[in-house]
Specification:
Structural class of chain B: mainly alpha
Shape of chain A: globular
Number of strands of chain A: 20
Shape of chain B: globular
Largest sheet of chain B: none
Largest interface: A-B, 27 and 15 residues
Radius of gyration of chain A: 25 Å
Structural class of chain A: alpha/beta
Oligomer: heterodimer
CATH superfamily of the largest domain in chain A: P-loop containing nucleotide triphosphate hydrolases
Number of domains of chain A: 2
Order of helices and strands of chain B: HHHHHHHHHHH
Strand content of chain B: under 5%
Number of helices of chain B: 11
Largest sheet of chain A: 6 strands, mixed
Number of helices of chain A: 21
Chain lengths: 547, 275
């Protein structure tokens, strides 16, 4: 089938320019002069940091530009037709039928008020590919191929009744509904846990391979793209940096930028010797906690953080990691157990904790977007703890803010900016700065790097390590990413369903023998080796068959 | 200043029109004694004199100059409406913010109380209260402001609820900030755009409401000039083909339209939509 149409590529993009309206009402190029060729049945990986123009390019493939963006030049030739020259009506007939799109957040892309199957049949019926009954039968077949549980009935559920991974697969099935020749995947697994990510990746890979569909796979995760793509394009600032066959580019990246992307994965902290016996700075003792009167979210959780050390709490979402942080900070009083800080039991509830207790225990959040007040300047955000806890006057606060900005490697002039005027990484630095301004002993870092690109995340981790060295800080580092654990942790606590399943020094936890859940987590982390996924699936299949 | 000019340039013509009309009303209201040819309650001619040189818009049912009363009416109607709306926003906004921050039983009780107040038709409730309490200006202001504040409460609570769950509010709580700080510095700046837009709408409703009450005889009491009672007092003229009563009615309509044009523009700006 692939050879029938000869050598003509399915998609040919030449000199594509997409411009976006920036804050100051100027049109600036987001994608500038991209050339791209895609053969039938080929999977192309697009990789780059956020703001590189990956998603904009992905949408432009369908001849579409977001609100506030417009395609300003070039051609997008799909199967011999330039999409940019077609009328909107003709383009619409191609979208969904011959080119499909899978968005990053399935939860946001599905209409919560309709059942999955209803949303599935819309496409085929609209495009006249199948009647309702045929479409439903097709859907069940696709659900089965995507390994969704109970394929006959899962379509009857509403989006909130299935898990994130299942929803992402249901959306992929929806994209396949009209038998498209090309599917654009825009970071389909970024929001998922490692263990769920594997299932989705496997389903996507298998389905794409079986149906011979061409695909463009957008992601910022190198290891993921290595599993999925035949060929990789590296983008930066809307321009092509490097392009090549997956194996070649993974083994021998030519450009310095590509090499720097590759290098991030290898960041690793030297392990410190085990803590000398003494009073830990923070000790969580047999804590059980629940929201309202529901099932306990934490059961008998105990661990300790020693001065100047980093303890990573690892687990998939729903394992109780963040709840543990809420109990420690006092936002959620535990049902049972206690929190001992510097040899003294802290009151359970936040209201009864003294100002100094609060000061010594600070928190940094995952999403700096919601953690920083968009209507306060950086100077106000950092300055508030500096004046609140230490009663400094205006001038002293200003000096202190400048000092802290220097510590987090930002120029002092940033004090006058608003969070909206900063990049994601800079915002996260301001989150760190706010914690530093309280001059704490312990900082709880809740997934602080998971919303960031690898390069930016590496910068943040290095900054945190440097601050720890200079100020003797202790960190409680909540994460689901094992590469981050390797980069920063001295000790690891593995949590699963509200319980601690394994804890100890990093080397002890990360080297066999493992607890079965730890083993699953470790095995699920994508490796850079392009054959890793295939091998893992083969191994799991044979293990399953032998049972 | 430069920012202000840039905003001015980016305004669509409808918003500029609205702004000009509002400024003209404010100007007339402020300088009514200087602009009006006669006094507010001064009887200067015969009943229902036609439009002419001496009385530009004629005289009313007891021989007072219509134009002068129109100018003074701007002062009374618009001024009192402004005070009412401000009061409604202070009370409703404050309680709405408190309900969102405190939550729990306080939010529940206040919410139900507001439900009860809103369940009674506003006009009938106002008529009832004014009949009981009398129709002085302070009573009028307090009664309408109280009724209006229920809607402001609903809005500010709903918008603030979306902000309260943000992590920067949690961070402020963890830091140990007091209630007032959280409301003033963390919440208020973030909910201001919808509140400002609502202020414009509520302002319209307030002076329409005063006009309606005046028309029914329970609003501002004579001889105070206000547009609602001016329509009522001279309504009979319509049957003789004289459009004089439509002038104060038109004044009300024009201000309503102007305020809404400006509010529309502000809403659009606040929502960040681009064309």
């Amino acid at each position: 089938m692939t050879a029938a149409r000869g050598d003509q590529p399915l998609l040919r993009i030449r000199g594509l320019h997409v411009a976006g309206l920036s804050e100051d009402e100027q049109w600036r190029d987001i994608v500038s002069g991209i050339d791209l060729d895609l053969r039938r049945g080929e999977v192309l990986g697009l990789i780059g940091e956020s703001g590189a123009g990956k998603s904009t390019l992905g949408l432009a493939v369908m001849g579409y530009a977001r609100d506030g963006c417009r395609i300003t030049g070039g051609e997008v030739v799909f199967d011999g037709q330039d999409l940019l020259k077609l009328s909107e009506r003709r383009r619409r007939r191609i979208r969904g039928a011959r080119i499909a799109y899978v968005a990053q957040s399935a939860a946001a892309a599905f209409n919560p008020a309709h059942r999955l199957i209803e949303q599935y049949v819309e496409g085929p019926v609209q495009h006249g590919r199948a009647g309702r009954a045929r479409a439903i039968a097709d859907a069940i077949g696709l659900y089965r191929r995507m390994h969704l549980p109970q394929p006959e009935t899962i379509g009857r559920r509403y989006p909130h009744q299935v898990s994130g991974g299942q929803l992402q697969r249901a959306m992929t099935a929806m994209a396949m509904a009209c038998g498209p020749e090309l599917i654009v995947f825009d970071e389909p697994t970024t929001a998922l846990d490692v263990t769920t990510q594997i299932e989705v990746l496997a389903s996507i890979k298998e389905t794409v391979r079986q149906s011979g569909t061409a695909a463009i796979y957008i992601t910022h995760d190198l290891a993921v793209v290595a599993q999925m793509a035949d060929r990789i394009m590296v983008l930066r600032h809307g321009k092509l940096v490097e392009e090549g066959e997956t194996e070649a580019i993974m083994e021998r990246p030519r450009q310095p930028y590509t090499r720097s992307l590759w290098a991030v994965r290898s960041l690793s902290k030297e392990e410190q010797p085990p803590p000398v016996d003494g009073v830990p700075l923070l000790s969580v003792q047999a804590v059980t906690a629940a929201y309202r009167s529901g099932e306990p979210v934490l059961q008998d959780v105990s661990f300790a953080v020693h001065r100047g050390r980093t303890v990573a709490v690892v687990g998939e979402s729903g394992s109780g990691k963040s709840t543990a942080a809420r109990v420690i900070t006092g936002l959620l009083p535990p049902r049972d157990g206690r929190i001992v800080f510097d040899g003294r039991a802290l009151p359970d509830s936040l209201d009864r904790r003294g100002r100094d207790d609060r000061r010594r225990l600070q928190m940094i959040y995952q999403s700096a977007e919601t953690a920083l007040n968009p209507r306060q300047t950086v100077g106000d955000i950092i300055g508030r703890p500096a004046s609140f806890y230490f009663g400094r006057d205006r001038e002293a606060v200003r000096r202190r803010v400048a000092e802290i900005l220097e510590m987090i490697e930002l120029p002092a002039s940033y004090a006058g900016r608003y969070p909206g005027e900063l990049s994601g990484g800079q915002r996260q630095r301001i989150g760190i700065a706010r914690a530093l301004a309280a001059e704490p002993d312990l900082i709880i870092c809740d997934e602080v790097t998971s919303a960031l690109d690898q390069l930016v995340a590496e910068g943040i981790l290095k900054l945190l390590l440097g601050l720890q060295r200079d100020l003797g800080l202790s960190y409680l580092f909540i994460t689901h990413d094992l590469a981050t654990v390797k980069a920063i942790a001295d000790e690891v606590v593995v949590m699963h369903r509200g319980r601690v399943v394994e804890k100890g020094l990093r080397s002890a936890v990360l080297t066999p023998p493992h607890d079965p859940y730890t083993a699953l987590l470790l095995a699920s982390v994508p490796q850079m080796d392009p054959h890793w996924l295939d091998r893992l699936l083969a191994a799991r299949a044979s293990a399953g068959a032998s049972l | 200043m430069g920012g202000f000019l840039r905003i001015l340039r980016s305004m669509p013509p409808t918003a500029i029109f609205g702004m000009v009309v509002i400024l003209a009303y404010v100007f007339i209201a402020l300088f009514a004694p200087l602009l009006a040819p006669y006094g507010e309650a001064q009887v200067v001619g015969a009943q229902y004199e036609p439009w002419g040189e001496q009385f530009l818009l004629g005289t009313d049912n007891i021989g007072r100059d219509m134009l002068s009363r129109l100018f003074y009416g701007a002062r009374n109607t618009v001024g009192i409406a402004f005070v009412i709306t401000s009061l409604a926003f202070v009370v409703g906004g404050l309680l709405g913010l408190l309900a969102s921050v405190l939550g729990g039983i306080f939010d529940l009780l206040l919410g139900r109380l507001v439900d009860i107040l809103m369940a009674i038709p506003q006009l009938i409730f106002a008529l009832l209260l004014l009949t009981i309490l009398g129709t002085s200006v302070p009573v009028l202001i307090v009664v309408i402001a109280l009724l209006d504040s229920t809607r402001v409460f609903r809005l500010s609570r709903a918008v603030a609820m979306n902000v309260v769950v943000m992590e920067f509010v949690e961070a402020a709580r963890l830091r140990g900030e007091g209630l007032w700080w959280i409301m003033r510095h963390e919440l208020l700046p973030n909910i201001l755009p919808p509140l400002v837009a609502e202020f414009g709408l509520r302002f319209c409703f307030a002076f329409l409401f005063i006009s309606a009450l005046s028309f029914l005889g329970l609003g501002l009491q004579p001889p105070t000039a206000d547009w609602g009672s001016m329509v009522r007092d001279n309504a009979t003229l319509i049957t003789f083909g004289d459009i004089t009563p439509l002038v104060p009615a038109g004044a009300i309509a024009l201000l309503t339209v102007a305020v809404n044009l400006v509010v529309d523009w502000m809403l659009q700006r606040a929502s960040g939509l681009r064309r």
